[in-house]
Amino acid sequence: MVVPTAPVSTGPQPEPVVDPDAPRRSMTPVLLICLVTALLAGGLGGTLGFVFATRSGVGGGTQLGGTPLAAPSAAQRAPDSLAGVAKQMLPSVVTVRVTGAIGSGFVISPNGYVVTNDHVVEGANDSLSVSFSDGSTASATVVGRDPESDIAVIKVAKKSVTAVSLGDSDSIAVGDPVLAFGSPLALVNTVTSGIVSALDRTIQAGEPGGTVRYYAAIQTDAAVNQGNSGGPLVDGAGRVVGMNSVIRSVGGSDTEAGNIGLAFAIPINQAMRVAREIIDHGKARRTVIGAEVSTGGTSGSAGSSGARLRSVQPTGPAATAGLKSGDVITKMNGHLLEDGTDLIALVRKYAPESVVAVEYRRGTKTQTASVTLAADAK
Predict the structure, then answer these.
(1) 57: buried, middle or exposed (CB in 10 Å: 19+, 13-18, 0-12)?
(2) Which of 71, 182, 343, 368 could share a disulfide with 307, CB 3.0–4.6 Å?
(3) What are the residue numbers of the active site?
């Protein structure tokens, strides 16, 4: 059986009865709470809106009165920052323009001497010129060249040039920050950064049939490309520690060569020694050990390495130190040698009359000697 329910009234509801003698509650606290809440919400919303707008680059450049805010100035960079070092160096870096080619260089004296690579000015004629970071240009003449060390000195016809600050390449260490300056791929006033990734990296370079050049180089991962040759490699204090000269590439030809994070610079101590001799005497002395060596590895027992002496000059530095033909030099000043290329490159790093410690193998015995290097007679 269905149980009936009470009908629901749809008529108007009676108004509640209010006691006229009951105390009335004040609305002031409620209004105050609403007002404070609205102010807090507005302030928070405005702050968040400003933060999001400035982070996204919208509306962050105008003051309340509509006046544009000043952009940060490069002049405010600290002198020891990367930007500060770049600003200091760029007036001393030049772009060297030779017919059909472009390279880099840097000013070493206020009277206009500039150091660059020999391969940059090779074949230069009266069309040799340089340009500075401010856009000014000047003609230049070749003072002297040393093809085997890949160093040349030119002089620019311009007054009031700014010279670089020179560092000590014997004091740098792997991991030190460096900047590379120059005109890679004709992009003038370019600065790249990296670190010293190796020291005394021995390199043999040169065109087939041309001059063979040997480097005991500073290796860096700063981006270096064609056109950087001759430009300075600079430490974090704005001092030149090397001259960018060689890149390693996976390309099949020079035109395909490009930066892969392996670039090599001539140590500035070696570059400046050669440059000063060119300026003072018109040519530079070549440092020798007084022996001919085999290159491409030793041909002795399996696993052996070192620079094998094919012949020793009777009165040369090696002979004076007691070395003989057939000896294999395995270390020079603690640097391991793989073959004759390493020995040639390291010897040329030092100045004539430098004394170096060598470790060598004669038969089954290992011996040591001190060798006073000499200058080539030619």
Answers:
(1) exposed
(2) 343
(3) 119, 150, 229
pLDDT tens across 168-200, in order? 999 999 999 999 999 999 999 999 999 999 999
Give me the chain's average pLDDT, please.
83
> pLDDT tens digits, residue range 123-151?
887 679 999 999 999 999 999 999 999 99
**The domain at 83-156 falls in which architecture?**
Beta Barrel (2.40)
Written as six digits, the tokens of 196 are: 């010293």
Domain ranges for the chain: 83-156, 165-281, 287-375
Residue 177 token pair: 């920050």
Q: Are 347 and 287 in contact (CB under 8 A)?
A: yes
CATH topology identical between 83-156 and 165-281: yes
The sign one gets for the Cα dihedral 250, 256, 262, 263 is positive
Average of per-residue pLDDT across 15-44: 46
**Percent of the chain predicted with pLDDT > 90:** 65
CATH number given to 165-281: 2.40.10.10
CATH-assigned architecture of domain 287-375: Roll (2.30)
